[in-house]
Amino acid sequence: MSHLKRLVEQAAVDARERASRPLPSAPPLRAFPRAGLIAEVKRASPSRGDINRGLDPARLASAYERGGAAAISVLTDRVHFGGSLEDLRAVREAVDLPVLRKDFIVSEFQVREARAHGADAVLLIAAAAETALLRELRLLARELGLAVLFEVHEAEELDAAARCEPDLLGINARNLKTLQVIPETFALIAPLARGIAPLVAESGVRNAFDVQRYRALGASMVLVGEALSSAEDPESATRALVRA
């Protein structure tokens, strides 16, 4: 079983456990940007282990906002990333920026709960489900007013991305099946992906040089998690990437 399959199955189990709970009233939507830095609130990951288990999501998101981030991503996966929907709500209440729910979303309930807990956008992963299901989830997200960041990590997934008509197309240098980071992934896929949606570079962004390299290759946005969540001064670290 691949790492991704385990992540998806656990997320589905967790979602079924929450499905009987009433959903809160959703706050007003915020328009999700198509350019700039998406700064991520990330406690841990399967590849790295603990990144910053004790982080305060509201305080960290506020630092990102002061540093000039265009949007905030919040990991809500509980078992493997240490996140929660409570983290999502705390971030939403702390900042004026739009918020992305980053999780392994494979059901309509997960999309609806994302909206209810304050997300303005959701992540859909090409390798996590069949294209027909992903398209249904994308259509539901559009109905609810949510933007969709659709993620691929190999060229063969671009057909699914085009069929789902996302608002943003993420190219992840980390293969979620193996957890290996392949630095040249963006350079290989980006020329084939033009015209689907503005491109988001994901994984492997640690400094201004990485941002400039991805921008030169055609990225409209970069999503940065570990480097910012583990930074001693996340506001300054964010500002340095934004300036780049």
- Outline, from the CA principal axes? globular
N/C terminus separation: 39 Å
Can you tell me the CATH architecture?
Alpha-Beta Barrel
- Mean pLDDT across all residues, rounded? 94
Order of helices and strands: HEEEHEHEHEHEHEEEHEHEHH
The tally of strands reads 12
What's the CATH first level?
Alpha Beta
The proportion of strand residues reads 15-25%
Which structural class best describes the helix and strand composition?
Answer: alpha/beta
Count helical runs.
Answer: 10
Might you state the CATH topology name? TIM Barrel
DSSP helix fraction: 40-55%
Uncertain residue segments: none
CATH-assigned homologous superfamily: Aldolase class I
Largest sheet: 8 strands, parallel, barrel
Read across the widest sheet, the strand sequence of neighbours is 1-4-5-6-7-8-11-12
Q: Number of domains in the coordinates? A: 1
- What is the radius of gyration? 16 Å
Question: Which descriptors apply to this entry?
Answer:
12 strands, two-stranded antiparallel sheet, 10 helices, 8-stranded parallel beta barrel, globular, alpha/beta, single chain, 244 residues, 19% strand
